[in-house]
Amino acid sequence: MKFSKIGLILVPLLASCSQGDINSALSVKVKNSADGGSGDQIFEVSLPPQYSGWKLKQYPSEWIENSEGQAVLLGAASIAPGSSASLELMPPEQATNVNLKDRAHAELSVRTGGEWQDAVYSAEGFSFEEVTSFTSPPQLTDHSYFLRYEGPGWESDQMGYRLYLDWRNAIDVFVKANDSVVLPEVGQDGYDSYHNLSSWGGDALKVGKSLGVGALGRLTEQETQDSSTQTVMHFQHVETTQYQLVSNSQLRAEFEVGYE
To answer: Which PROSITE patterns match (predicted)?
Structure first.
């Protein structure tokens, strides 16, 4: 039995197979131990080597390399809290082109073809290059017009998000009009169009001076003679900000941001 931690949900996975002969019928038993909530749960299944390439028959799944360098089957299924389900698998010859639609995506794109003028990147038109690693130049700030939609973005089939990769360190929200991957087309024509609702969706949150839907910050209190006021200190004093794409598969999209 393998336990895979998904957020605050522990999902035990039991494969009905063992080392040795290949079974013609194979299934995994998945239990959702959460107390509440709904939607698809993402889980990892470790199978014996002879079942490499097998996939879930009725649910999205893909083979990935996990953080320990092991090949595992990544699956997505909606299982009610507190209940279990037996999920059937199928051999590779039957699994070709089944449930291949992307349901997760992460990216960061930098602008090209121009030059820095103080804290603003100036260029004719909007040409961007997607990168897997990035270190912010010291002059990068809000509205530098260097990063497409001002930082890395990530999305599921339901919602999209972006992180301001500058002193603001806030997370913004994109609403989506469909369940397809849309972020690669966002902001390709400038830094204003995604504030308006379009065929793919649009920016849905006025972040202002807040941390958006939630991010790292420091709560400070300013006292006067008659009262005190709490404010949030953003990342104004950071020597280095680094981005690294960790994974970008059909079901899982991850990146890391480090501040020093």
So the answer is: PROKAR_LIPOPROTEIN
